[in-house]
User: Fold these one by one.
Assistant:
Number 1:
Amino acid sequence: MVGALFTLQLAAVSLVLGSVFGALGCWLQLCKNRLLRGIGYLYAAVIRGIPDLLVVFAVYFGGALALGSITGAYVEVNAFAAGVFALSLSFGAYAAEIARGALLAVPQSQREAATTLGLSRPQALWTVVAPQAARTALAPFGNQAIVLVKQTSIVSIVGCDELMRKAAEASGATRQPFTMYLAAACIYLVLTGIAALLLERAERRSCRHLAG
């Protein structure tokens, strides 16, 4: 149970921070400055192009190396902090693409109509474009959040005491690996099932609002 709670905490913090990275990445990709736009596309391409496990290793061991070079002594990186940052980087890269696609999917005529009505560009963005983009991005963003719950298992490799690591410890203590990992699989199914139900409910509410 401790491992499941830790997994939820890890996923929740990573979701919040990853959403911030996603928003920043989306803004960079849509920025008019070519350098900033290139940084945004590079971030998404690199993180999406390498395995998430390598991202975890890069953050954990790279962070220790960077801190060591600054302090002049070996510094052990906190496993939870490294796990959150790595998962947030991965989630943010996909979230940036989702947000960018949703914003570009809003017809240009909507922006022009808002401008015709006297709205400034920021006002048009927040009152006309953003609500439509949010409805478009809801399903893929929610699906990516469900994937994030499962991705928390990879940070067990750096010593994070989440569900998968607890299952490994229990299997070693009881010498019943099949039973312990099967129990972990059932817990993951429950967590992702709850997340899927919440997503479905959010989509229904969004459709009712749109219909109204």
Note: The chain has one domain: 2-211.
Number 2:
Amino acid sequence: MRGFFAHLAALLLLAVFLPQQALAHPADPTQGGAGGRIIRVTTLAADGPGSLRAAIRAKGPRIIVFEVGGVIDLGRTGIDINNPFVTIAGQTAPAPGITIIKGGIDIKTTDVKIQHIRVLTGADGQAKMSGWEADALSTVRAARVVIENCTFLWGIDENMSASGPRFTGETVAEWRAGTSHDIVFRLNLAAEGLAYASHPKGEHSKGSLVHDNATGIVFDRNIWAHNVERSPLVKGGAQVLMVNNLIYNPKARAVHYNLMDLEWAGRAPVTGEITAVGNVLRGGVDTDPGLPFLMLGGVGDLAFYGRDNVAVDRLGNPLPMFGRYGKTQAKLIEAEAPLASLEGYAILPADEVETTLLATAGARPWDRGSEELRVLFFIAEGRGEVIDDESEVGGYPKVEATASPFVEAEWDLATMTPKSGTYPGQKPGAQEHLSPRDRQMRTGGK
């Protein structure tokens, strides 16, 4: 098995994390804990001195780094981030990096940046519909958050979401201020949401939920794979930008918008907004025949701007761009210009998205875990499927714990990149994959 995954690693080129100039994007809404004190995680225990949870509970601006690598078993508990101005820098961990299992992360504050962490939630043996319903990652009434180069597998509710209350206050402006806003999801892998597992509602394989009235939500170069629906689901009045994402093997819905009359309880619907540029939907073995890129449900109108989005079935045949579920008066309003700013993005042509993301999305592209290699390789081959339990694909990883000191002088603390250009666990001579567009940017157009 070890040789098998080594072969997969070679085929995927073990890409090096690309520098910022090669992944151009606008300034982030936050720098997290930049400029704050360094807090070292020195144990893989779920709690107690030196643990990740203890570092997260600390107050004040802080950069959390790791002097251990391996698995943090939360034992069906969650990690809540309640104190603002924090960066969690998983790239600092020695190989094999940090993998969190049997739980998830909820962000309930402002100014958070999380990089290069794996979260593998899973059912952990719980009976079907028994009530264990953790997200792998969710923002809950949070603001100014960046989730970058992380891997989220086996969520029971969603894999990565922006959530919060629908209605805080009396006006639309107050509703939007009172829920999650200004959240960036970049270069993440969100896959294999569990279908018939322990969620009390039954089937619940979901990728990402953008809750009602959430605004400034950006999905930039992410991969969703093997989720029944919600890649993403955008709820009433929300505003979303999607740039260069890959959706693989959705079953019943890919992107969809739904303002539900029952949830809005007589309030006047607010038009939602989606700007989608250079995204790819590719069907797999589970994908319903004729599945559209975007489906409209509920009673609220959706303003939509789309450009260079591609949708094909597993054989490469075109799929429709639009469809709907439910017979309602909701309207799709096609805009002639982007509804969110695209300034600062180096947008890839759609035909470069899949190859580029397979090499660069997810945690630690230079130091992949076996679960990531399996999912990414199967996407490349057109394989894989929706699952009900993590045991169907080998279960939770078993890796040896490692330790190595974090040497502050060896890192650029402003960008959390190693001054040497080599990350912990990066193999000598590992190649990086660049799209033609990124290669031009790296070399100044040469």
Note: The chain has a mean pLDDT of 91.
